[in-house]
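seq:
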Amino acid sequence: MTPRQKEVFMIIDAFWRDYGYGPSIDEILMMTGTTGRGNVQRIIKRLCELGHCVRLPHLARTVRPKGVRIRS
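struct:
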């Protein structure tokens, strides 16, 4: 895991603990200070491919750390 991937993963994990749902791309952009939504999207996709995160297709804010259950 690269340092940037770790930073995004920690943001997603903390957001889930605080609010019970995943952060939006724009919220991750603000928290990391990066520019470009595509960069964050690519990092999230790679985290899901590596198995650190899980995402439900076609739904917003569903990216979550592995092992966290999504509320109904």
